[in-house]
Each structure stands twice: as structure tokens, then as C-alpha cells.
Amino acid sequence: MLWIIIALITTNLLTLIFWRGGDETTQVPDQKQLTSDDATEDEPVVAIVDDERIHHQDWQDYLESHYGETGLREMINHHVIQKLAEQHNIQVDPAIVDLEVSFLATVHGELAEDQIKTIEEEWRREIEDRLLTEMLFTKDVTIPEEEIREYYDTYERQYNFSQRIELSHIVVDDLDTANRLYQELEEGADFKALAYEYTIDEDSRATGGYIGFFATQSTFLPTNYLEEASNIAPFNYTEPFLGNQGYVILYLHRELPELELEYDQIKDHIRVKLAIEELEETPSIEALWEEFEIDWIY
Fold it and tell me: Within a domain: residue 24?
């Protein structure tokens, strides 16, 4: 009987300890804790629309479902290309990348000052990956030297880029208005906002005064624009001056330098272009995956 009593007491004590320990680590939620608002109140909030919150996890789930596979595929492609290029000792001449970035910038148009570095780095990576893919795809294709030379002589101008400047302007009828707007700019006013409101140049009003890139030797540059732009640093504006349409405040976004690629720099690039035309097949990065053991979640 004594041993039975001791066993029962021990069992009760162990049960009591177990439940108390469980209380410290596991709380039984009440109905209030199960409501959606309280269940997510500790999650980071990335946006609020009126009283409705968008939580970080919701955002992550959306990105994963819409862009997850595409983004991961791009990352794998980049690693595959870089590894194969290193194995085969294949490199892209940086001057060719510079040339493509310059042309792309003139086509893309206005970029904010704080966006340029990030966006152009992305362009460079994409251009280099594309060119390396083409080089890997055609590495065993031989094109006669005379064909390469003939192509270069025919399309040489494609591999030259003239110096260009990117401009915006505000044009007004009188000097008093121009001076007043200049003073507002000095006090921190936004150039585009003033152009929307005051410029008399209807062609550029809708773009906040933006008029694009001009070759420095272009006959389309309005009178005095090149001279005035040469006196200021990029991402700055001039004092008012008299132009063709009226009094002008000119904004210089940036300058793109002249680029001239010699035949020796460009001949392998031309060989690749002609080889792709000969193969009549579009290079595919995914076709190169076969050379690696790739295991991914999709």
C-alpha cells in the first residue's frame, strides 16, 4: 500500500510540473487572439490604404507568386554565363558595353540623378550577359576575315557615338519672369514643376521642359544652348539668357562622351553577329544549363 501511495503522489507531482511548465511556454489562445488583425499586428506593415494594412509577408507572397520564378531564373542564368565564360576565357570588351549603354540612354530618355547609377549598372549586367551568351553560342563558328571587314566598312558608323548633352528648358516671354523663376529655383523650387506651369514652349510643357539628347555638333540645338550648357556642371541650371523663342533657363542633365571603336575592338563582336545569322538560331541561355547540375525549387 505504501508503494502504491508513493507512486500516486509521484505521478500527481509530475503531472502538476508538466502543466505548469506548459503554461510558461505554450499559451492557449482565446478567440480574440485568433482574429486576423491581432494575428498580424506584430508583422511589419509596408503600406496602409485608409485603415487597411498590407503586411510585409503579404507583399513577399505576392512577389514570390508573380516574379519568383522569373527572378530566380535570371539569377541562375547570370551564374551559368559567368562560369562558362570563365571556363572558356571569353570576355566582352568594356567599350562595346559602354557603346550600347550610351545608345540605350538616349533612347530611354530622362532619368533622375539618383537613378542613373543603379539603372545603368543593371543595363551593363544585362548587356554583358547577352553578349557573353552570344559569344559562347558561336565560339566554334568561323567567319572569314574578309566578311568581317566588309561588314565593318559598311556599318562603321554604328560603332561610333558622338558626344551628346541632355537638356531641359523653361522658356518665357520676358526677362522679369525669367529672373523671378531663377530666384525660385535658387530657393529650392522644382525645375519640372516650374516648366509645367510657366514655359511657353508647348512641345516640352508636357514633359516638364525636357527636350532630350543633342549631339554637340547638331544643327538642331537652339541658339546659345551649347555655349550656355558648357558653363555649368551636370544637374545644374543656367542663369536666364535670350534664346530663339524668348528668355531661357536651361537645365543640363548630363553629358555622354564621344566613343569611337576601332576595327580590332569590334571585329570579334561582328564575327559573333554574322555567326548567329549563319546559324539562324537565337542563342538560349537555358540551353547552357545542361553543362551544370542545377537544382532549383521550380
Answer: no
Q: What are the residues whose beta carbons fall under 8 Å from the beta carbon of 53, sequence distance 6 or more?
A: 40, 45, 47
- Please report, to the nearest 10 degrees, the dihedral formed by the alpha carbons of residues 72, 78, 79, 80 taken in order: 100
Look up the pTM and report it.
0.76
Q: Considering its fold, how many domains does the chain have in total?
A: 3
List, for residues 101-149, the tens digit of each pLDDT value.
Answer: 999 999 998 999 999 999 999 999 999 999 999 999 999 999 999 999 9
The residue segments making up the domain with residue 83 are 35-87
Q: Give, in order, the Cα–Cα distances in Å from 112 to each of 109, 145, 233, 253.
A: 10, 44, 16, 9
Region for residue 199 given its phi and psi (left: phi exceeds 0; alpha: psi -120 to 50; beta: otherwise): beta
- Do 192 and 249 belong together in one domain? yes
- Identify whether 29 is part of a domain: no
